[in-house]
């Protein structure tokens, strides 16, 4: 019997899901262990092995592969916890990463920040100027060498960077995506001078046009590359010592995995790995339940994440923004705010109650954890309101301190606002529901979708406690809570469900309709790169699926839209159809008539995404069917719970999910206790258990 394990390392908890080839699924949760997150991984694997009734080494010896998602890369960039990095570029272009193409003044800024023009600054540079040096060389727009690479200038610059103590070097030369020879030679020179130096090349990390975005992507990849290499090397070493035979895979932002040995070379591709696991899991579960349009929502300990699945496919984007800098990484489009279970409630200077984005994380954690935390969080409020049991989390392995939660809320929130502790807790709960609803509107409504056409999936340790309210807030009629063994470890389930996904891209701008032969040649070269990369993964695939796409834009407009391109040799009719598809998609995104067709259409970037389909695809097992809808047999107790401050505390039925069967129908208000999460069925809503053990909450709408 072979196992597949998905491990989701979050800021507060580390989740794991194990699937075998007989359709059995086991899940586990353990506290994360910053700064050495690998210990949390080993801890959660030990919990899995305990549930299987076998030693860890025996479990790992039977494991086909482990798919790992980590926040370490993203956290390092966001917090600026990165080593010193050097930057080499073409003579005369060093200042491009400091000028930031003017974008650095507004990218990633909130509306309030953008309106405060005088308050904007550009003090968020990637590296100090002393670490940005120039080398003599020049290519033209076609990749033709105009000025040969002056290798002595390279050695001089590299020596300065090595003497300055940099831990990695990013290389981004002008037009290098058209001809990478100079960048590749620079890497050879660096390794001649220091064989262990980490080098990141823009022609490999981000072979796209637009100098600033390409350079910022390469620099950020260099910043996290050494740390990712060391972390994955250490983790894989520990796993091998414990008996792992199969490969360790790392989740990428594009919704697929890559071999751990390959990941550091394009480290920037892993920045959203944990964020995308839930969306991949939603696609897998949606196939089992027949849902094509899904809003994937994940409330963990630190963040609230939202992603969309439209017509069975996750919504993708070709870039993202981190710390005001554009990052050229194909990714599943996931929106996030700091509003998880550990989000801290606080008062601003005006005395207004705020929740997040700061989080208590796993250390010290919410006040009720009894680990030194003194600031009130969403988790503390839920305990005071009766939503969480005092017996605690993790199936009782983590007891909760009600008095510590009450004291934190009283000191920081209730007394300053002149409220009772209960009213302050209810206010925290209400604000959490409001701001999660706001992010849903931004993700769904403001992108042109009707929430009534979607089913909402809610997971994570805290998601099921809020989902009924935020689903109703935007008009979603049904909310599915995966209740079986993957209840709060759904992102880890998504990791276990993931295949290998690799992408290659190349900017080769041209006016549409393109010469079909030129387009066919570009796609053929990219497909060859993807297939070669698949072979390096060291895995046997059932099949490899390739999808072509082309980024197009109207001439003189900025917005680029990706359009799929058919397989095989292309002809004039295919190019004309691609252009028509672009115009239709542009109108759907930005409004009919907003495109200026008379200006013409330009092709910018060619892309091929390859999916190596693995032989494992975890499916949730079926549960037994109830004789009738009455869930009384699963009733644990009745306790006072406050879900609406206007009503106050009311006697609320509390159910044990392990006793629920398919067909059981629960009328709100009700609480369903799961060892790793708590589900709230709000008043005037109903929850029905389906054939896979999931709870479908029907909202008031």
Q: Brief overview, please?
A:
The protein is an alpha+beta fold and 701 residues long. Helices cover 32% and strands 27% of the residues.
Structural notes for this entry:
It contains 17 helices and 35 strands. The protein is globular and about 80 Å long. 32% of the residues lie in helices and 27% in strands. It is of the alpha+beta class. The mean pLDDT is 87. This is Methylhydantoinase. InterPro entries: ACX-like_C (IPR049517), ATPase_NBD (IPR043129), Hydant_A_N (IPR008040), Hydantoinase_A (IPR002821), Oxoprolinase-like (IPR045079). Residues 214-501 form the Hydantoinase A/oxoprolinase domain. It holds the Pfam family Hydantoinase_A. Residues 520-691 form the Acetophenone carboxylase-like C-terminal domain.
Mean pLDDT, nearest integer?
Answer: 87
Q: In oligomeric terms, what are we looking at?
A: single chain
Number of strands: 35
Mind describing the biggest β-sheet? 9 strands, mixed
CA(first)-CA(last) distance: 46 Å
Helix content: 25-40%
The Rg value, from CA coordinates, equals 26 Å
In the predicted model, the low-confidence regions spanning at least 5 consecutive residues are none
Tell me the number of helical segments per DSSP (H or I, 4 or more residues long): 17
Structural class: alpha+beta
Overall shape:
globular
Beta fraction of the residues? 25-35%
Protein name: Methylhydantoinase
Domain Acetophenone carboxylase-like C-terminal: 520-691
Domain Hydantoinase/oxoprolinase N-terminal: 5-193
InterPro entries: ACX-like_C, ATPase_NBD, Hydant_A_N, Hydantoinase_A, Oxoprolinase-like
